[in-house]
Amino acid sequence: MQCTFMSLSILLTSFSLGSAAGDAPKIIAYYAQPNAYLTDHAREVAELYDGFFFTLGSWDEGVQNNLGFPPEVAPQGNWLEQAASNLKALTGAGATESLLGIHFGDSAPWPSAETLLSAEYTAKLARHFGRAAAAARELGFRGLSIDVEYPYPRYEVDHEIYAYEDYTVDDLLSAGRAQGAAVMSAVLDAFPEAVIFVLPGVLWTRPIDREFTLGMLQVMQERDAPGGLHLGAEVAYSLLDPVTQVAIPRVGDCSAEALLTGPMLEYWRRRCTVAPGVWPMHMVETGGKDYPKRPWVEELTELREQMAILRCTAKRYIWSFSGQPMWYMYTDALGQQYGLSKQTYEGAEEAIPGWQAILREATPVSNTRLGPFLKAIKAYDRGRLSPLELCRTFGSPGQWLVLGLLGNPFTTPQFFPGAPAQPPLSLDALYHGRDGVVRWFSSPDYSLLGDVSLMKYFDWRATDNAAAILATQVVAKRDQRDAHVWLGWDDGAVVRLDGRVVMDHAVYPERGHGTFFRDRYNFEDHVAMPVTAGRHLLTITSINSHGSWGVNLRIADADGYPLSGIRFETP
């Protein structure tokens, strides 16, 4: 499918960023278990999806039970036989991108000091992942999907499970990277061409998870693995705004520019992508109590726009998530013949056919205001825009000066210095923060969506009951009288321009606030912030109660579209 504009005023007809010229990104559905329906109805299914995540279970028990280790351990049940039948039928129908999905369990032993630092456990990981890869190749899968999400609390180095009696943080991080390398070596030994998905797809994440992923990526780079590493990004689960949707498939590329160097960065640029994930039933399946309920025709209209945008900007893959299958419409006859369950979504009889229609369509992008941002993506891909310049185009700083960790002004105000938020900045000054003396530091962030994770700046360590100050310079070529500041925050934030308070949301919430507004928007509030020509100091005081900590900021017009003629520079 090609992405085209409906207005000739935008010079972007036939705008496509697939893995080869003219290719549309492949769409993979999460998830499926082997079943006879997929064999018998492969052609109907292939009209909707290019493949499935066939979830095997955990890397440990799932691999052993469903695949076995012939000849010493036989598999249980007929998973292998049914999967082989499904893959043959789907591939013959043109759905060639199915992945074998395995995950790490949330209550399993890994990661822990005992499992990370164990040569025996590392060998077990390699053996099981090697077996999964061998089976994937034999069955005709395109590759593997590795879900690292569930043990996420133990990826933080200050988790209570780590006693540090005879090892250090560096030991854990080195072990995490070594195990990622061992896993990927085993996978590529068995399946050199495998496409590798990582779920959820984030490079700059909690320390142990990050090192494990970088270990996998390093081995892929050393072997120039042709399948590439693909980040199954979940940020597109929420419909968000159109400008943000345009940017999502380059978020991982920007993170790679901040994290990687040399051959690894070059490999990333050639082989690796972000695969945005869409959650079509988000309105009724998310569990978020604040998600606005509305007629399905309105939700489907936005989903159609979202898919049109992502089909333009995703490089190689899009995937969709649903807790219940959306690749068939239930009837009693189908249920009796194949043992399929009836979908229990609220409004399933309208939503499922509507979603399937979106998948079959080649809907063009009709919003001509997105033209400059689509062109910026193309220029970035061609090396004509740097990550910083791309972030500026999307209305957000790609780099901040940061001062922290500071005391929470509501709980430890004695260690919250207010003066740094006022100009001029004293970059060499020392300030008494929450745990000791701190000073300004800078680190490339390249937050293309305007989302600044303070957890990331402090590597997910000891960030409860804290605050920080962010600073950048807004540089305007001309007066920008229609400029607005758009903001999302967790848990509190105050925005100042040249020391003057522009937006104050520092009310301390009892239970925390959360950066997603109504479980679907990055930006909850916006106010006019006229900017005159010249340089201006923009600061954000960000306050955290507990848990996730971040702030979302974009400079745009009243409708949320970033302005030309504004850039950001680190003071």
Any overview of this molecule?
It is a single chain. By secondary structure, this protein is an alpha/beta fold. The protein folds into two domains: 26-385, TIM Barrel, CATH 3.20.20; 391-569, Jelly Rolls (Sandwich), CATH 2.60.120. The protein is built from 18 helices and 21 strands. It has helices at 36-40, 42-46, 61-66, 79-92, 113-116, 119-139, 169-190, 207-223, 242-247, 251-259, 262-271, 282-285, 296-313, 332-338, 348-360, 371-381, 387-393, 454-457, and strands at 26-32, 51-58, 99-103, 143-147, 195-199, 229-233, 273-278, 317-321, 399-407, 431-432, 437-438, 441-444, 451-453, 466-476, 484-490, 492-497, 500-505, 525-528, 534-544, 550-556, 566-569. The strands form four sheets. It has an eight-stranded parallel barrel with strand order 1-2-3-4-5-6-7-8, surrounded by five helices. A hairpin with a 2-residue loop joins strand 16 (492-497) and strand 17 (500-505). It is globular and about 70 Å long. The two termini are 45 Å apart. The relative contact order is 0.10. Residues 4-22 have low confidence and may be disordered.
